[in-house]
């Protein structure tokens, strides 16, 4: 498994009430049911206009295939900035909803 952290700044520090519906729409249309993606969290620091997305993928190859040049271009077009994308080897995940540990 691989965890990917994506950091970005939303211009103008829009309020949570403006950002949340946009992120929910993206979750519904793009990420819900996406093959190879186990989970994704959309996070936002309203006071600083900072966004953070945390992805858990089944493999690095599938994560890298998603975070390609087209993704970066679309992100820049839609969000107005180029995100910082960092990959981490995921060693252990606690899934309390399933009552399980996911281990490599």
Written description of the protein model:
The chain is built from 3 helices and 6 strands. It is of the alpha+beta class and 104 residues long. The protein has a single domain, classed as Alpha-Beta Plaits, CATH 3.30.70. The strands form 2 sheets. The chain has a 4-stranded antiparallel β-sheet with strand order 2-3-1-4. It has a two-stranded antiparallel ribbon with strand order 5-6.
| Structural class estimated from helices and strands | alpha+beta
* Number of beta-strand segments: 6
First and last CA, distance? 7 Å
Provide the CATH architecture. 2-Layer Sandwich
Largest sheet: 4 strands, antiparallel
Mean pLDDT: 93
Please give the radius of gyration in angstroms. 14 Å
Helical amount: 25-40%
What percentage of amino acids are in beta strands?
35-45%
CATH class: Alpha Beta
Shape: globular
- Contiguous runs where pLDDT drops below 50 for at least 5 residues: none
Instruction: Examine the coordinates and then state which fold CATH places here, giving the name of the CATH topology.
Output: Alpha-Beta Plaits
Count every helix, treating DSSP H or I runs of 4 or more residues as helices.
3
Biggest sheet, spatial arrangement of strands: 2-3-1-4
How many structural domains in the coordinates? Answer: 1
Order of helices and strands: EHEEHHEEE
Protein name: Monooxygenase
Organism: Seongchinamella unica
InterPro entries: Dimeric_a/b-barrel
């Amino acid at each position: 498994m691989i965890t990917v952290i994506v950091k970005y700044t939303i211009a103008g520090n829009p309020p949570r009430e403006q950002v949340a519906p946009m992120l929910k729409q993206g979750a519904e249309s793009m990420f819900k049911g996406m093959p190879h993606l186990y989970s994704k969290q959309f996070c936002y620091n309203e006071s600083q206009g900072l966004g953070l997305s945390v992805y858990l993928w089944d493999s690095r190859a599938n994560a890298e295939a998603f975070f390609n040049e087209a993704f970066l271009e679309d992100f820049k077009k839609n969000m107005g900035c180029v995100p910082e994308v960092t990959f981490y080897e995921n060693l252990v995940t606690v899934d309390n909803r399933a009552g399980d540990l996911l281990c490599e």
